[in-house]
């Protein structure tokens, strides 16, 4: 695989996961704060990995396709 492909995959993953983690911690951070770190990390990962695979990445792919299609039409 080309390095450009890997860089694009990293960028797309970051675009999906960073806002998701931020929103999750904003909404549930106080409720999870009494838990030990390993339990908070488990809850975060068991929630956000499926979110990333089934919602986050498809949304990022759709948006990138939408913007690249608009760029080609201009």
Can you offer a commentary on this structure?
- The chain is mostly helical and about 70 residues long.
- It has one domain.
- About 90% of the residues lie in helices and about 0% in strands.
- α1 packs across α2 (about 35-74).
- The mean pLDDT is about 90.
List the helices and strands and how they pair.
Layout: H1 3-32, H2 37-73
Helix pairs in contact: 1-2
Largest sheet: none
Share of residues in strands: under 5%
Contiguous helical run count: 2
Oligomerization: single chain
Gap between N and C termini: 30 Å
Q: Please provide the count of β strands.
A: 0
Mean pLDDT: 91
User: Which structural class do you get from the secondary structure elements?
Assistant: mainly alpha
Features:
single chain, 74 residues, mainly alpha
